[in-house]
Write a structure and sequence with these properties.
With 415 residues, the chain is α/β, with parallel strands linked by helices. Helix content is 31%, strand content 20%. Strand 1 and strand 2 form a beta hairpin.
Length: 415
């Protein structure tokens, strides 16, 4: 007798749907995508449960049309956390599950190639190196590729925003995408700077807490070196063969964080945010699922990345309102990161110079460990702050004369 599959579909209904297993005998695992009939259309769904019986008569159930995945995209732990998020934030189960998937994987498409992406010049591209018609980003990309093929991660570091130029050059037949394999190791590319006493104490407190779930609030003034604490903890997780997830609130902060991670660690880093092309984002997500990406970096949507070998979660600027999703399925990425850390049984670090009131309350109640970095690195003096009374001043686009003058002086210094 054929089995019954409970399938979540991306529809705004608080329920799942029962289907018979495929007529070809294939039995998808929990967390795999399947193609199913839904009304007069076909929909992609995610198998959430195997059943022996259904509330509907068996003759009313339709069979799954096709199994799309050989292995689950969403593992048991992630499915469980998403189910909890669905209850906590009152989301429709199918919409919540599909919100966790990159856009590419929400359709009945084959999985994108998982090889490391690299770019090189074509024969025509090499002949165009001296062409003066190419300027700006296109010329810079041609020059960067003139010596050898470069991986996408190397281009991300050397030429932020290079992809639009790559698309133009590819359409002109000057560049081509190739696959380049890399070693999956955990060697440091650059030596870590010497930590000061407060930084060392913070790292030691977290490291000595042992394994298992625990939340730490790292409160440090601007310039106190919170990022170096993150990197030291990530290095420790990598040395144990684990993965690390690091969240930043804004896409604009991702390039700087990515550069520091790649300069520091010689391991694959998966970058996840909404400005990436669909295929690129899906490849990074799958690299995290397969464990090939040892570090996952991204904005709030990266909190849904699978972590089969998780060792640490870091939420930078945990107070930032950008972690709140305001459209579709509404959730708070920081709070879901806490749910995931608990489910994964790993430590999570919430960092901020101005912690949120709820995090401070949890720290005061003893639910979070509270670590403080009070001194600036290298004993830098605090930036001077001037408070102006704007009453009676004529503002230009909301800027006061004093601020405009200070900006002019700063630009004149070449800063």
């Amino acid at each position: 007798m054929t089995g019954i599959l409970r399938v979540a579909l991306p529809v705004p209904l608080p329920q799942t749907f029962d289907y018979l297993s495929p007529t070809d005998g294939a039995m998808p695992q929990t967390g795999c995508r399947v193609l199913v009939p839904f009304g007069r259309a076909r929909r992609v769904g995610v198998v959430v449960e195997h059943m022996t019986d259904s509330a509907l008569p068996r003759e009313q159930l339709k069979p799954v049309l096709r199994v799309l995945d050989d292995a689950p995209l969403l593992d048991h732990q992630l499915l469980s956390s998403l189910s909890r998020a669905c209850d906590y934030w009152c989301g429709a189960v199918g919409e919540v599950l599909f919100n966790a998937l990159p856009v590419w994987l929400r359709y009945a498409k084959p999985l994108p190639l998982s090889d490391n992406e690299a770019w090189q010049l074509t024969v025509t591209g090499r002949s165009a190196l001296d062409a003066r018609s190419r300027r700006g980003a296109s010329a810079a990309l041609l020059a960067a590729l003139s010596q050898r093929a470069l991986r996408a991660e190397e281009l991300d570091t050397a030429l932020p925003g290079w992809r639009s130029a790559a698309r133009r050059l590819h359409a002109a037949g000057l560049t081509e995408r190739v696959a380049m394999h890399s070693e999956n190791n955990a060697h440091a590319r650059s030596s870590a700077p010497t930590l000061n006493d407060e930084q060392r104490n913070a790292v030691a407190a977290i490291a000595n807490a042992g394994g298992g779930f625990r939340t730490w609030l790292l409160e440090g003034v601007t310039g106190s070196g919170k990022t170096e604490v993150y990197l030291a903890l990530i290095e420790r997780a990598l040395a144990q063969g684990k993965q690390a997830l690091m969240l930043v609130p804004e896409i604009g902060l991702a390039p700087q964080a990515l550069r520091r991670l790649r300069e520091r660690f010689d391991v694959p880093v998966a970058l996840l945010h909404s400005n990436l092309a669909e295929g690129e984002r899906a490849r990074a997500w799958l690299a995290a699922r397969d464990g090939r990406a040892r570090i996952v970096l991204g904005t709030r949507s990266a909190v849904f990345a699978p972590l089969p070998n998780a060792g640490l979660i870091v939420v930078d600027e945990e107070h930032d309102g950008s972690y709140k999703q305001q459209e579709g399925f509404r959730y708070h990425a920081r709070d879901f990161a806490l749910m995931r850390a608990q489910a994964l049984d790993v430590q999570i670090v919430l960092g901020s110079a101005t912690p949120s009131l709820e995090s401070l309350a949890n720290a005061d109640a003893g639910r979070y460990g509270h670590l403080r970095l009070r001194a600036r690195v290298h004993a830098r003096a605090a930036s001077p702050v001037h408070v102006l009374d704007l009453r009676g001043l004529k503002l230009q686009h909301g800027l006061s004369p004093a601020l405009l003058q200070a900006l002019d002086v700063c630009i004149a210094r070449g800063e």
